[in-house]
Design brief:
The chain is of the alpha/beta class. The protein contains 13 helices and 20 strands. 24% of the residues lie in helices and 20% in strands. It is globular and about 70 Å long.
């Protein structure tokens, strides 16, 4: 894994990825609860993971404080029974190691963790699923929707896993380029592209999906400026001749979350195919522009049934066939089918799978996979959601109206959708004790609250789970996409640090009972047999208070008093 290194120092438990070493006397366990510290490995008692159940979940919030020393990464072996191939056990190992290494604690009460092995596995499963149903030799570009996790190291990881990028702004394009994603593997989508964004995309050779007739007119001008109107027009304006196309809305209806349904009758995206005269306009637009060679739709998102998504793709495929028949040639040679595979937020099971989805499409739209069309996908949430965890310290506990409340450092600043729309975006909460071990015990109905100053800032309402205590940690699961990467600066709460982690089979910990492993790394008490080696790498440092002031106009404090 890039940029994950074993620390060469011999001092006990040095700082990890920009975080300070623990104060003397705190111990390698991070101050575990002696009443609930389970010797040997990780306890996995019933009920420790609280699903969305009756209400909703939410997420953790950023740590504060000044930026620390340069990153140093330390390996921490943990107990037996942690299978590197088991995502839930990898998560448990990472939580315990994050506490032990001081990535999270009293002075840094929130951190976000990304499972690198899980992300790589999802990328591989995506590629395999479509390769299995497409004719041999079919070009397929899987362009990750950058909006789901606009973090350069994540984009670089996905690039190395064989994915490209779908961007929807100049900022996302800059992130993609910083990650080294080639222009040929990049797609520009947005309903509000500026002239400058279009010009830059064409100059770089980035594919563009025009959203509407007015945007297409802008492309006309750029292409016309590059050469005569024959079949190769626009080669200069389009760099190496990147595909240009139109986004259409098949208007097949929405899912359970209205705000995310992109193929409704009145959606703001694309050309509405069922509106009077719209389909004929699209056909004519292609016939008049030989350089339009791609057709794009995006009918899926969270809450949209797979069958409905397939209906939208079938309608788009039929349109491509009509245009090519009218043109008398294979003018449209690639179809961008978008993304939008829903994610299961109620358990660790990853469903629906890419294999199920690809097989459904191959059954419903077989011509899409017969080799005549190149394919582009734009998945985001489904690639990363299950591989992210926000870990937030429980600062206080109280009772109100007879119901226990755990006040944590995670809330609306990183889980705005869950806090404001809990029924649509419930999240699971897992409890861990102060040493990072799974909190077990009888389930107690409780609320898990965030730090923001409004009453609705809750991670979970009326949630049955083992009772959280001060110093414990609330882990907000399935938050790898659209959560900690999208900070909402309520109360000027800082962005949390984000770390990637890897868990490897490590040294045998034969009855070590807390002994030191290689390089003085602590091994879990009572671990027998093979342990697991947890390594961390910085994805994004925690935001400092100085940065908050700077981003809030600190350098211009007197501008409204003296400048006007």
């Amino acid at each position: 894994m890039d940029d994950i290194h074993e620390d060469e120092q011999t001092a006990p438990r040095p700082a990890v990825a920009g975080h300070p070493a623990p104060r003397p006397g705190t111990g390698t366990s991070g101050g575990g609860d002696p009443d609930h510290a389970a010797p040997g490995g990780f306890a996995t008692g019933p009920g420790r993971h609280s699903g969305p159940g009756r209400h909703s979940g939410s997420e953790p919030l950023p740590g504060s404080g000044a930026r620390r020393a340069a990153p140093v990464v330390r390996r921490t072996p943990v107990g037996a029974g942690c299978a590197p191939g088991d995502p839930a056990m990898r998560r448990d190992a990472a939580v315990r190691a994050a506490v032990a290494q001081g990535l999270v604690g009293p002075e840094t009460p929130i951190v976000a963790l990304l499972d690198v092995a899980g992300i790589r596995e999802s990328a591989a499963l995506l590629r395999e699923a479509f390769a299995a149903v497409a004719a041999p030799g079919t070009p397929v570009l899987h362009a990750f929707a950058v909006k789901a996790a606009p973090l350069v190291p994540v984009l670089r990881l996905l690039r190395d896993a064989g994915l490209g990028a779908e961007v929807a702004s100049a900022g996302e394009l800059a992130l993609s380029r910083a990650a080294g994603i080639p222009a040929a593997d990049t797609v520009l989508d947005s309903p509000a592209k500026t002239p400058g964004e279009l010009r830059q995309a064409l100059a770089l050779g980035i594919a563009v999906n025009a959203d509407n007739a007015q945007e297409l007119a802008r492309l006309d001008a750029l292409v016309a400026a590059s050469g005569p109107g024959d079949g190769t027009a626009g080669a200069t304006a389009r760099g190496a001749g990147a595909p240009l196309g139109i986004r259409v809305n098949p208007q097949i209806g929405g899912g359970t979350i209205e705000a995310l349904s992109t193929a409704t009758a009145t959606s703001k995206f694309g050309v509405a195919l069922r509106d009077e005269g719209a389909r004929a306009w699209v056909v004519r637009a292609y016939l008049e522009r030989p350089w339009l060679t791609r057709l794009h739709t995006h009918s899926g998102s969270q809450g949209v049934p797979l069958e409905l998504i397939a209906q939208g793709l079938a309608a788009t495929y039929e349109l491509a066939e009509e245009i090519n028949a009218r043109a008398g040639r294979q003018q449209i040679d690639s179809i961008d089918i978008g993304g939008g595979l829903p994610v299961n937020f109620s358990s660790d099971e990853q469903t629906p799978t890419y294999t199920e989805y690809a097989r459904l499409l191959a059954d419903r739209v077989p011509g899409l996979f017969d080799g005549r069309y190149g394919l582009v996908t734009e998945f985001g949430r489904s690639l990363l959601a299950k591989h992210g965890t926000v870990l937030a310290r429980v600062e206080y506990t109280k009772t109100s109206g007879g119901r226990p409340i755990a006040v944590t450092h995670a809330g609306v600043q990183i889980a705005a959708r869950t806090v404001y729309a809990p029924e649509s975006w419930p999240l699971r909460i897992a409890g861990y004790d102060a040493g990072g071990r799974p909190r077990t015990g009888d389930e107690v109905v409780q609320d898990v609250a965030g730090p923001a100053c409004f009453a609705g800032d809750l991670l979970a309402r009326d949630r049955a789970m083992p009772l959280l205590r001060p110093g414990d940690y609330a882990a907000v699961l399935d938050t790898g996409a659209y959560y900690f990467a999208h900070h909402y600066a309520y109360n000027s709460l800082p962005r949390p640090a984000v770390f990637g982690f890897a868990v490897d089979e490590a040294y045998g910990a034969q009855g070590t009972d807390g002994a030191d492993g290689p390089d003085g790394a602590a091994i879990a008490d009572g671990a027998d047999g093979a342990g697991a080696d947890v390594r961390f790498a910085v994805v994004r440092p925690a935001q400092t208070t100085e940065e908050i002031v700077a981003e809030s106009g600190g350098a211009h404090a007197a501008s409204l008093v003296r400048g006007l």
